[in-house]
Amino acid sequence: MQLMSERGAAGGGLRERKKRATRAALAEAAVRLAAEHGAEKVTVEAISAAAGVSVRTFFNYFETRDDAFVVIDADAGARMRAAVLDAPPGLPPLEVLRGALAAEIAEAEQQHELWRLHAEVLHASPHLLARGVGAHMAAEAELAEAIAERLGDTGGLYPRLLAAVAGTAVRISMDHWSAHQEEAAFLDVFHEVFSLLAAGLPAPPA
Amino acid sequence: MQLMSERGAAGGGLRERKKRATRAALAEAAVRLAAEHGAEKVTVEAISAAAGVSVRTFFNYFETRDDAFVVIDADAGARMRAAVLDAPPGLPPLEVLRGALAAEIAEAEQQHELWRLHAEVLHASPHLLARGVGAHMAAEAELAEAIAERLGDTGGLYPRLLAAVAGTAVRISMDHWSAHQEEAAFLDVFHEVFSLLAAGLPAPPA
DNA sequence: GTGCATCTTTGCATACCATGCAACTTATGT
DNA sequence: ACATAAGTTGCATGGTATGCAAAGATGCAC
């Protein structure tokens, strides 16, 4: 059996597939090792060995060691961009983002175990959680651009704020959920956060 | 003349004052060098030399090189905590944060030039902007705790979300302002962002 | 299927980041 | 002035990250 068709990844060539496989192997090895030993104690050498490539190759795929713990899917940005531009015209921008992110997350959550480990690793190393924002900053900028395009407000403050707040929402949702996995599904937390945002973060009922 | 009383820092001992001075010198050197040469090209050695201490001493003050570009004031957290707890009881939490942050920023903005350079450095190196969130994550957690205490909602989702969104607001405000310094004062941008948040991020008028 | 062009991987050299430790210098309290 | 505590420094060490050139795959044309 061939393990083809990873994730919308019928990408024709053998090269493409191999690259995807290597990247995925590195990311997965990183998360598993971090979940077991703590992210700080996992060296690039260990990750590379677990994935069966050289250290130098690791750095061909990730700019920094931390990126391996953080980057989930390379072309999530493109998908979300499309989702934002395709959403029904009347929908409030915050709702558009809620929808696009929820879809993306539902996708990622398919790989139950890895998603859970991922959340736990990030929860255990807050600095990685922050880095998550950084790594997805490109995605954030891309999102902002898509929103700007949708609204015709290019270069404005609003699209960037919206994208950044959405990123923050995901970050806080993951962190909170990973500490309360028993009590609620991730998507429930996520939707609660967005509801709070849409309501203007009102004081909760005492 | 003695250069005493830096910033609420009449801290009695000579040791205290020297430490504050060294820390400030390192942070300032870092920002000035980064503004001139780009943050990525500034080595710890250069920063240390400019501040007149050894490399090893640099790392006695900052955990990582990037922290020197990011950490503004060590005890801002404590001040904000106090501000949050002292705010009038009826005020909505988001307004409490707006006030506490605005006061803190107004303070930092006293040093015009440094504040401007700081914003420019962060704008030029987005990864530092993200790290800013990370470095202030301790502050964020502290803020969250103060809010939680104020609301009696310890460990809940809401305080953490509020603190995180507030941090994001500062980040986006700085970034946007540093790119549009001519058009508006920083505090104007900041207040506009908070108004958007309080209104639930509604679609802007087309 | 042979052979050339292209892309990827790899090892090596190099520079920088970060930490522990021990020796040394400088404040502080009495 | 003295003993103690605190801060600074150099050295050694190990991990992170990049450029470069050689070797190994893959894709493509013929």
TrEMBL record, chains A, B:
Extract the DNA-binding region annotation as residue ranges: 43-62
What keywords were assigned to this record? DNA-binding, Transcription, Transcription regulation
Tell me the GO molecular function terms.
DNA-binding transcription factor activity; transcription cis-regulatory region binding
Q: Please list the coiled coil stretches.
A: none
Protein's UniProt keywords contain Transcription: yes
Location of the HTH tetR-type domain: 20-80
An example Pfam family from this entry, by short name, is TetR_N
The record's listing under SUPFAM superfamilies reads: Homeodomain-like
PROSITE patterns with a match to the protein in the record: HTH_TETR_2
**PANTHER family the record matches:** HTH-TYPE TRANSCRIPTIONAL REGULATOR RUTR, MYCOFACTOCIN BIOSYNTHESIS TRANSCRIPTIONAL REGULATOR MFTR-RELATED
Q: What is this protein called?
A: TetR family transcriptional regulator
User: What is the organism field in this record?
Assistant: Streptomyces rochei (Streptomyces parvullus)
